[in-house]
Structures are given as structure tokens and as C-alpha cells.
Design brief:
By secondary structure, the chain is mainly β. The protein has one helix and ten strands.
Length: about 120
């Protein structure tokens, strides 16, 4: 499946909704896990502003890649962000979209407040 790297260098990214476990099956409540590592997957909604446009993106991230300080409005860095086009058919209806996945979502506030080594 095609994966497109997303350049976040000139973007402003802030948490729009705190991280929540990604649900694999809404009926059973089963939590999604990474097929390769078995890590629990989380969803973080972010405000992504670039080129005079703002969008809310839902990013899937392994639980180990989510920093603790992610509250609404927190500026963040998205490590290893990729976009993956998807398409499926359900009950004769075709659906398509773009899924976003990152290795990590890290608070920039926490990084800025840490003392520098001498």
C-alpha cells in the first residue's frame, strides 16, 4: 500500500482532542493494535495549519509514541507522519479517504520547558 511522507516543517500543529484508544470494533469495544508490534494504537486529533489553511486531522499513533502532556491546545511535533490513501466497499457503497499515521506525537511545551545541559 502506498505511503506518502508528510512534511510538517512549516506547519503549526496543536492538539484538538486528547489521545484516546483507537477502537477496532465499535460493537465489541475491541481496541486496535499494531499488526507488526502488537502495540496498542491511539488516536490524536490535531489542528494542522499550513499554507493559510487549517484542517483537523485524526492521527493514529502507537501508545508508546504519545507523550503524557497532550491536552487540547498543546503545540506538538509529529514524528514520521505519513498519509495513506484507502478505499473500501461496504453494502455496495464505495468509500475512500486518507489515513494519517505517525511514529510519535510529542509535546513541544515539555521540550521547551526542560533545562538545557551545561
Amino acid at each position: 500500500m502506498r505511503q506518502i511522507p508528510v512534511d510538517t516543517t512549516n506547519a503549526t500543529v496543536m492538539v484538538a482532542k486528547a489521545p484516546q484508544p483507537k477502537i477496532k470494533d465499535r460493537r465489541s469495544g475491541e481496541i486496535a493494535t499494531d499488526m507488526e508490534t502488537g502495540a496498542t494504537l491511539m488516536t490524536v486529533d490535531v489542528m494542522f495549519a499550513a499554507n493559510n489553511e487549517v484542517e483537523i486531522l485524526s492521527i493514529t499513533v502507537p501508545e508508546t509514541g504519545v507523550s503524557d502532556e497532550l491536552a487540547m491546545g498543546t503545540p506538538v511535533a509529529l514524528t514520521g507522519l505519513i498519509a495513506r490513501p484507502w478505499e473500501n466497499e461496504f453494502n455496495g457503497q464505495k468509500r475512500h479517504g486518507i489515513a494519517f499515521r505517525a511514529v510519535a506525537v510529542t509535546s513541544l511545551v515539555a521540550a521547551a520547558s526542560k533545562p538545557k545541559a551545561a
